[in-house]
Amino acid sequence: MELGLKDKVAIVTGGGRGIGETICLAFAKEGANVVVNDIVFEGARSVSEKINSQGGKSIPVKADISKYEDVVQLTKTALKEFGKIDILINNAAISPKKEGGGPTMTWEIVLEEWDRVMNVNLKGTLLCSQEAVKFMLSRKSGVIINISSVAGKAPFEPMATGCHYDASKAGIINLTQRLASEVASKGIRVNGVCPGRIETPLTKFSSKEYNQKMLSRIPMGRFGTTEEVANLVLFLASDVAGFITGETVSINGGWFMD
């Protein structure tokens, strides 16, 4: 099936590892030019070099998406290098972990940590979307995909997150719907993806007991893969999904069904 992504320009935030890295590699495989953003430049550079060594086109860009100036520079760099922005994947996020593991209770969260999570996860998604949309409106085309979480739809224990992370991911779902309704008539589509428990390097830091408890909630009996998430993102970004907007698609093995 032809996805129509060849020569498209995609910005992927948080592209230096995990789900973001796999998304970057998947777009490059489809012939897209990829702007790999990460706050850790070494991660972004490593992914970008991998793409270029395989015959793709990519550049790494260090930017803190919670800062307006950094986001402006990110989009300017993408436009200077590739001349356009066709696709924005808002993937970058943080989820502070409680010392010793386990969920962070609402009464345990300090305001500084609340602000940091909201600034990266929700404000960062807003800032990147604003700057990308400004360009997309001028061309009357574009796709934005926001990576939320199952925690944004159904926050519950034993997830090792906290209400700050859950609330930020719920806010992303609402932002996705609102922005999609505003730009649908202007040739721009906005959708979201809600992963459940996905096998990444970070899951290896969780205890065996915690992972087993998470696994017991998943009817399919396994964790998802970053490739499965990337394939869903590719579909939503492609011409094949041209009549889909304002949706946030769950990919969680049946953990939460809405």
Q: Which key phrases capture this entry?
A:
258 residues; alpha/beta; Rossmann fold; 7-stranded parallel sheet; two-stranded parallel ribbon; 7 helices; globular
List the helices and strands and how they pair.
Blueprint: E1 9-12, H1 18-29, E2 33-38, H2 41-53, E3 57-62, H3 68-82, E4 87-90, H4 111-139, E5 142-147, H5 163-183, E6 188-195, E7 198-199, H6 208-215, E8 224-225, H7 226-237, E9 248-251
Parallel strand pairs: 1-2, 1-4, 2-3, 4-5, 5-6, 6-9, 7-8
Helix pairs in contact: 1-2, 1-7, 3-4, 4-5
Structure write-up:
There is one protein chain. With about 260 residues, this protein is of the alpha/beta class. The chain has one domain: 3-Layer(aba) Sandwich (Rossmann fold). About 45% of the residues lie in helices and about 15% in strands. It has a seven-stranded parallel sheet, with helices on both faces. Strands 7-8 form a two-stranded parallel sheet. Strand 2, helix 2 and strand 3 form a beta-alpha-beta unit.
